[in-house]
Amino acid sequence: MNFKKQIPNLFTLGNLYCGYLSIGYTASNHYKNAAIFILIGMLLDSIDGRIARLLHVESPLGKELDSLADIITFGVAPSFLMYYTMLFDLGWIGLAISGLFPLFGAYRLARYNITAKEESLHHFTGIPITIAGGILATLILFREDIPSTFTMVIFILLCFLMVSTIQIPSLKKVRLPRNETIVTILIGMMLFMNHARSWRVFTSLLYIVIPLYLIYMTYRFIKIKASR
């Protein structure tokens, strides 16, 4: 076994394990920890592919493993989190609604897997499940300061946008930042999260950034349809 080829897969498996831990924390009513592990998985997911390209060890195995990890960490785990925090009181109806998220996400992943490699280097079709799961986890992480109606609307939009034909620019060719930059960002986030006032400021920004992003994606979808 070539260890060099397995390095990216270790990050992918770490992503998958974060999804498992998130589901476990959700079942234990530790919802913030569950959301945080989804975000950690998002970080690992952004690294594995870049490392594979950096080491020139991209493989069909890595691609399939990445999809399996993504459907768990950014599909199943967020849907569990959504159900237990927002839809539990609706019983089986809430369970059915939350289950739509991994269904749409799985369809989006399958469509991505049959997309030509050259095309995926320039743009994605539909919002990647990684982004959708990360947005949902972030909203639930700050659910005490965000109305449940707002989260539900975003949830529905994310499901729709994952299976849409909107073209989203890919960042695969963007170089990784230096280690010092990564460490600085992580330290800054830790300091930021330790201040309640800063926490609320960040929550307020979610009301602006996420709707603007989704409105822009919807506009792109309408514009593409109108031009055909």
Q: Could you walk me through the main structural features you see in this protein, from its secondary elements to its overall organization?
A:
With 228 residues, this protein is mostly helical. The radius of gyration is 18 Å and the shape is globular. The relative contact order is 0.10. About 10% of the residues have low confidence. Belongs to the CDP-alcohol phosphatidyltransferase class-I family. Keywords: Lipid biosynthesis, Lipid metabolism, Membrane, Phospholipid biosynthesis, Phospholipid metabolism, Transferase, Transmembrane, Transmembrane helix. This is CDP-diacylglycerol--serine O-phosphatidyltransferase.
Short description:
The chain has 228 residues and is mostly helical. The protein is built from 10 helices and 2 strands; from the N terminus they run ααααααβααβαα.
> Which H/E pattern describes the elements?
HHHHHHEHHEHH
Q: How many structural domains in the coordinates?
A: 1
Question: What would the principal axes of the Cα set say about the shape?
Answer: globular
Count of DSSP H/I helices: 10
Strand order of the largest sheet: 1-2
EC number: 2.7.8.8
GO molecular function: CDP-diacylglycerol-serine O-phosphatidyltransferase activity
Family: Belongs to the CDP-alcohol phosphatidyltransferase class-I family.
Pfam family, one: CDP-OH_P_transf
